[in-house]
Amino acid sequence: MTTHTPHSSGHAVATAGWGKWAVTGAIAGIIASLAMAAFAMIAAATYQGVGFFTPLYHIASSVIDGEAMMQSMEAGMAGDNFVFIVGPAIVGALVHMMVGAGYGIVFAVIAKLAQLRGAILVAAGAVYGFLVFVASAWVLLPLTATILGGGDRSATWQRWSDIPRSSPSTSSSASFLRSC
Q1: What residue ranges of the chain have pLDDT lower than 70?
Q2: Contact (CB, 8 A) for 177 and 156
Q3: Under 8 Å between Cβ of 34 and 15
Q4: pTM flag (> 0.90)
Q5: CB 3.0 to 4.6 Å from 60: which of 24, 28, 52, 92, for a disulfide?
C-alpha cells in the first residue's frame, strides 16, 4: 500500500500544471514556427525571387554546409523556384520547429508566472512573437552561425558575386544574403 503525504501530492499537482503549460507552449511554438516558415517561403518564392525552399536551407546552413541554400537561390533567381533537396530541407524544418518549440516553452513559463489569461495572453503572445523575430534576425541567428560555424559567409558572398547582375531580383537577393 502506498501512502501520500500532503507535501508529495501538492508537489505532483504543481509539477503537472507546469508540464501542461510547457507542452501547450511547445505546440504553440511549433504552430507559430510553421506560420513563419510559410510566410518566409512564400516571400522567398515571390518578391525576393530566391526560391521557395531557400529559407529551409538557410536555417539548415546554421549547422550544415550552405550549398543547398546557394543552389536554391541561384535556381530561384534563374526562374526555378522549386529546387528541393531532401536532407537539408529536413534539417532546416526540424531545427526551425525545435527552436519554435523552445521559444513557445519560454513564453508559456512567462505566461504562467505572470498568470496571463484571455485577450491579454493573446496580445502578450503577439508582442513576444515580434520580439523573438527581431532578436532572432539581428542577434541570435548571426550569433548561432558564428558559434556553430554553419555556412561559410565568405563562400556565400563570393558565390553571390558570381551571379549576373542582370537578374530583376538581384536587389532582393542581396537583401536576403545580407540577412544571412
Answers
A1: 1-16, 150-180
A2: yes
A3: no
A4: no
A5: 92
